[in-house]
From TrEMBL:
Designated name of the protein: Peptide chain release factor 3
GO process annotations (BP): regulation of translational termination
Known function: Increases the formation of ribosomal termination complexes and stimulates activities of RF-1 and RF-2. It binds guanine nucleotides and has strong preference for UGA stop codons. It may interact directly with the ribosome. The stimulation of RF-1 and RF-2 is significantly reduced by GTP and GDP, but not by GMP.
Annotated gene: prfC
Coiled-coil annotated residue ranges, if any: none
Binding-site list for GTP: 17-24, 85-89, 139-142
Recorded GO MF terms: GTP binding; GTPase activity; translation release factor activity, codon nonspecific; translation release factor activity, codon specific
Amino acid sequence: MSFISELKKRRTFAIISHPDAGKTTLTEKLLLFGGAIQTAGAVKSNKIKKTATSDFMEIEKQRGISVATSVMTFEYGGRKINILDTPGHKDFAEDTYRTLTAVDSVILVIDCVKGVEEQTERLMEVCRMRDTPVIVFVNKMDREGKDPFDLLDELEQKLSIKVRPITWPVNMGSDFKGVYHLLENRMNYFKVNKTKLEDDVKEIALDSPELDASVGVKDAAQLREDVEMIETIYDDFKEADYLAGSIAPVFFGSAVNSFGIKELLDSFCNISPEPISRNTSVRLVEPTENKFTGFVFKIHANIDPRHRDRIAFLRICSGKFERGKFYKHVRLGKDVRFSNPYMFMADSKNVVDEGFPGDVVGLYDTGNFKIGDTLTEGELMFFTGIPSFSPELFREVINTDPLKSKQLEKGVSQLAEEGVAQLFTMQPGNRKIIGTVGELQFEVIQHRLLHEYGASCRFESKPYSKACWITSKDSEKLNEFMRLKSNFIALDKDDNPVFLAETDWILRMNKENNPEVEFHTTSEFN
Ligand code: G4P
């Protein structure tokens, strides 16, 4: 197959949701449809049910599985589909944000009972920053949920995105009859169906008496009324609007009952974008370019506890990636090659000889990679759009075993490179401040420092609530600000200066009093 056909086959996306909406179930059903797994239950949920370290550690024990499920690949309808897994727990939201930088589109799962939840809003903000095309799957229609029109309004209001239903539910909960495909005029009849993948689909005109016979006169009348309403409220669905990230097509179904999945998957194969172009510090890179480029968006450490190996997940952006070939590691300015690059199936990983744009390869790493690193065939540029966001909790790392200070230093900086948390260094004394979005990350760091690096530490709370990256056109003004506020200035992992603000009010005052200094809430800015 030619390079271009390989490229056009690829669809790389992530499923995002608030925990418990049904992301894991949907992933599994997509894999079943794709023939990548044979039985339900093969995909281990990587979610952490409670805010408990033990759950995380349990998952760590099964690291082999969780690494394999970081990327899941299958073929369906002539496409090669790469699903990038995202952690469901909110304390690991940063990991999800970064994964979103490596996808070309997203499927958002909503629980029809709960509607739009907090985590969904934050994830969608990240999608909107990049105009990522989004398909919405409203799940759990076998439950008594919100009115579908209300749900669509809620999606539009809370997520600031326009929506357009593609399928429409006929009743819900215990009276759920199925979904009607608005563009293809067919009815998919619902059955409680936990294991089978069969669909009971019939082409049926909206005004056909057969519809009344099959779903009942009342539900058929309601459907006709709903469709009329949909046609007045919503514009016709245009693929271009979806691809531009300005309209999200909506599907209804029940993942646990394998219902509505085929419609979703078929439409996804038809409309979702092939690998898209990506921005770098120098120019836009097109996937069709002959020369290979890619970037690291995720790092997994210590797959094998006997070694200090890590796996760096690299998204291929252009050209063909080849096993054993030398590539330029732009940040380190050195040539590197990989003799055993991996690709991931549902429950296994295989060494591959080549990869194409859209693919994700796992590269063994002995400490060369940081998140955001770029590989090229020699061109000096790095992919942009992989920012850090301001953490919400800040704590200083206090060494509790003076004999192990080297191990602690190394552990802390390696965990920061992996993206487990953000590291800020303050003077005097090279004090290490760790910033996270959740409590759980601190527990994980403490545990991993002890078990993987033999270093013990405790954390001391710091009163900061926001980290702002600071810049100024006038370097003297910036230096003066940093000198005056030295107690609140730290350097991030790339040595960029950051102002640590205790409250929003303090931040506002500092902005007002220092108009020549710019404060940025993410690490990337123009
Ligand atoms: P997540 O990855 O988004 O966190 O959600 P997950 O798929 O684990 O689903 C959360 C719960 O919702 C699970 O139940 C799952 O079975 C259930 N669920 C998923 N899809 C549907 C659906 O279409 N209808 C209904 N009624 N429930 C659905 P659980 O009790 O937490 O786990 P389990 O013991 O059933 O696996």
